[in-house]
Amino acid sequence: MIRLRGWYAPLLTLAASLIACRNRDSGAPTQAKPQSSLRVVSFRNDVYPVLAKNCASAEGCHGNKPTPSVNLDLRASSAYGELVNKPSEGRRSAVRVKPGDPEASFLVDKLTGRLGPVQEGKQMPIDVDTGAPVVPSPLPPDFVDQVLERWIAAGAPNN
């Protein structure tokens, strides 16, 4: 029997343990987390509150006192109907929210700033005093991709 001294013994023990674990687990199939475990996004509970706070509450925006150039009412009584399958005024042949298709939904582009160079307006939300896009955006960091796009991809239900 060979006796190891110094730092060789713990190193070899660790290596033998790792090899044993690898060999034991190598044949086991890995299980992916099912997609159904993702929480359903709700318009009333997840989407609308962010739009109300950032887009419909300030004067001159999409709330109680819009300016003449604003033709989108995001107050509670009309927000869903104003967004889903409603033609966009900023982009020809587009809709504000196209159920099942976040990439074709103009609202996503307005909130992310993916706008064309001509007459598609400014990235939202804007500062009511200066008229410039608010930088950094006051929207929650994951709102567009984890809430809005998921809601649209799920068919933009009125839930």
Provide a compact summary of the structure:
The chain is an all-alpha fold and 159 residues long. It is built from 5 helices and no strands.
Task: Encode the helix/strand succession as letters.
Answer: HHHHH
Provide mean pLDDT, rounded.
79
Q: Show unreliable segments.
A: 7-36
Approximate shape: globular
Main sheet specs: none
Total number of domains: 1
Report the β-strand fraction as a percent range: under 5%
Secondary-structure-derived class: mainly alpha
Number of strands: 0
User: How far apart lie the N and C ends?
Assistant: 72 Å
What is the share of helical residues?
A: 25-40%
The number of helices is: 5
Q: Return Rg in Å.
A: 26 Å
Question: How do the strands and helices of this protein lay out in sequence?
Answer:
Blueprint lengths: L7 H18 L17 H14 L22 H5 L22 H7 L30 H11 L6
Helix pairs in contact: 2-5
Which key terms come to mind for this protein?
159 residues
Describe this entry's structure for a reader.
With 159 residues, the chain is mainly alpha-helical. The chain has one domain (40-153). The chain is built from five helices and no strands. It has helices at 8-25, 43-56, 79-83, 106-112, 143-153. Helix 2 crosses helix 5. The protein is globular and about 40 Å long. The model is unreliable at 7-36 (pLDDT under 50).
